[in-house]
Amino acid sequence: MSKHSIENIIALSSDLRWKIGDDFHDELAEGIYADASEIAGAAVSTDTQKKRFRLDAKIDKIVTSRTWGFPIMFLILGVILWLTIIGANYPSSMLAQLLLDTIHPILKGFATNIGMPWWLDGFLIDGVYLAVAWVIAVMLPPMAIFFPMFTLLEDFGYLPRVAFNLDYLFKKSGAHGKQALTMSMGFGCNAAGVVATRIIDSPRERLIAIITNNFSLCNGRWPTQILIATIFIGAVVPASFSSIASLSAVIGIAILGIFFMFFTSWALTKTVLKGEVSTFNLELPPYRPPRFWKTIYTSLIDRTLIVLWRAILFAAPAGAVIWLISNIYIGNESIATWTIHSLDGFGFLLGMNGVILLAYIVAIPANEIVIPTILMLTVMTTGIPGGEGAGVMFELDSVTATGDILRAGGWTLLTAVNLMLFSLLHNPCSTTIYTIYKETKSVKWTTVASILPVIMGFVITFLVAQIWRLVF
Amino acid sequence: MDNKVSSACETCSHYNAKGLKKLGLNTDNIDFVVALAGNPNTGKSTVFNALTGLRQHTGNWPGKTVIRAEGAFEYNDQKFKLVDLPGTYSLLSTSQDEEVARNFILFGKPDVTVIVVDASRLERNLNLVLQILEITDKAVLCLNLMDEAKRNNVSIDERTLARDLGIPVVPTSARFNEGIPDLIQTINEVATGKIICKPHRIKNVPKNIENAIKTLTNEIEEQYPSIPNSRWIAFRLLEGDTHIIDALKTGELVQS
Questions:
Q1: Does B226 touch chain A (CB under 8 A)?
Q2: Contact residues, chain A, for B62 at CB < 8 Å
């Protein structure tokens, strides 16, 4: 085809555009609306009693009201978390018993029988297998409860109402109101939350949503929060209040994360990402009663198993690494011991210890394995009984036993609080970092999104540690 | 007589369960490409899942689908690739998710475009329908969420609607799999040319604009006789859409 003819068309079009004036867009839009109204008018008939519409409006009046909007939001979050914490306990310990107490010894026995060399046996069964087994035992039950409940809420149509409630705060912080939706997705998985930011049109506001998504406690971090809160926070109050206390601590951390999200969004818009807040229309969809069993089924298959599979993929090599660094010696010390000792000073400043910091380095691929790594490294460096030897990741069947080991490792309430804070404020997992890079196509912003939370984590835990030590 | 009929449906002409095979992600050797377009939150992903047997995640909030998802089904030995597009309110704006839909309908040249609309909010949804009908000749209107429309006491005369729009109209409640066999049958008939659409063209525009559009459309058709959506290109050129100008220059619009 000739260049000439294309130029002709373009020239003709700009000529005509000039003739018909500026109103083209509006006139066309009006024309479309007029046609739509004619066609709909001919085909649609509505009974004047609009009962359902009124019910929807009534529910909305309550859940998006100034007085009740926020309390209802926190109540729903609280109930979901409470059901997750309570409900996950039992299947978790059953799975632990099966995978760790029953199958693990069988595998060990089998390895000895066929004369497997100690290092291969250790690497495969104590490293890779135990890491995978632990992740399944700890992650599967809470996910299988949390995700379906979250999906039911999503199918019912509650999420846009959350966005509606939070819109004012987002506008205040200079971010896009739809960030409330991507933030909610982040409570399941940050990588999914980052992908969901595509619904935000403005590149500036989308970048803010991407960078701050990590402040939504993701599924990999809920179990850590829950476990540590149960052991240490629950222990400071009388037994009858312990589950309420630990639940409030976990919700507190989640709300703190939302606070940091607003704060960081605000700080970014005041500094490097200045700009106008864009307006948008948010449709509040009708409430739809979810198809209960179908939703449960698909959320189990789609979300739970996919996330679990990813965790397993990352846990297996991490388990191998843990076993290796605890069993390769340089001089008299294993690599792990050496690293822990060199990180201990810095860890003390932050109110934590070298074990926690090393665990976070090992667990960059997947946050889910932080706790088992910490336990294993603690046992190894303190030499207390309970573990199964160098580099063996294990889970203790009772929460008390875990607490005993951690206390023997020098843990205090401060260590626990700061671990919970640091679990909220640290770099995103490797999948999320990769997703951020894919979405932004920018090394600079990927780096900012990865480093910024760690720096905030260091600052906050440092401050908390110093103040704590002054007061107590 | 020994004919085993396990349900009354099997004797119906629409019953063709044997003819339908959900192929999931297998999109090899495709005969037809079908696009799923529509406003946000009208149930496109639910229709997509019902047709392909996939479990693309669905959720009750506008903007759930941000990237296009693909799947396939086979009906009467013909393979259909189905593309689930992000929901849009209009093809006239340029946000990232809307552009995915716009570009696919225009450049992906689907054999059939299924426009999923919310039956209880028909008038608002028609805005997009009319724009899509300017681009493509082969379309099916999937009147989804009929269950909700019924609950809201909204009733729709499908025949009038089909006549006015010039395309087949299929009422469905995809969440409950209602109307899906009909939809498949209709998609098949439009794809194979058994049903010929005569889509509605936007009428209520002032004379001078209509004349300008006609002049430009004629010019475009003269230069590129094979172009399928000259009128819509004329719309966009009059609007000064640089994307379309670029696409004309690179020849993207005229490749068959």
A1: no
A2: 160, 282-283, 285
What's residue B64's pLDDT? 61
Pairwise CB contact (< 8 Å): B59 & A155: yes
Chain A residue numbers touching B66 (CB-CB < 8 A): 195-196, 198-199
This model of the complex carries an ipTM of 0.81
Percent of chain A with pLDDT over 90: 19
pLDDT for res A132:
84
**What contacts A458, CB < 8 A, 6 or more positions away?**
A350
Average pLDDT value for chain B: 81
Query: Which residues make Cβ contacts (< 8 Å) with residue A325, sequence separation at least 6?
Result: A334, A335, A336, A339, A362, A391
Residues 17-36 of B with CB under 8 A from A: none
Return the pLDDT at A378.
77
Please state, in angstroms and rounded to a whole number, the distance separating the CA atoms of residues B113 and B105: 8
Best to test chain A binding among B42, B68, B154, B204 (most A CBs inside 10 Å): B204
Given a cut of 80, whether residue A205 has pLDDT beyond it is yes
Say if the Cβ atoms of B62 and A160 lie within 8 Å. Answer: yes
Higher pLDDT, A173 or A6: A173
Contact A302 B234 (CB under 8 A): no
* pLDDT tens per residue, range A109-148: 898 898 888 888 888 888 888 878 877 877 778 778 877 8
Alpha-carbon distance of A344 to A353, in angstroms, equals: 5
**Buried/exposed code over A429-454 (b: 16+ C-beta within 10 A; e: otherwise):** bebbbebbbebbeeeebbebbbebbe
Give me the helices (H) in A97-158, please: 104-113, 118-121, 130-156
Better-scored residue on pLDDT, B65 or A104: A104
Using an 8 Å CB-CB cutoff, list chain B residues near A17: 212, 237-240
A338-364 CB burial, b ≥16 within 10 A, e <16: bbbeebbeebeebbbbbbbbbbbebbb
Looking at the complex, report in whole angstroms how far the Cα of residue B8 sits from the nearest Cα belonging to chain A: 26
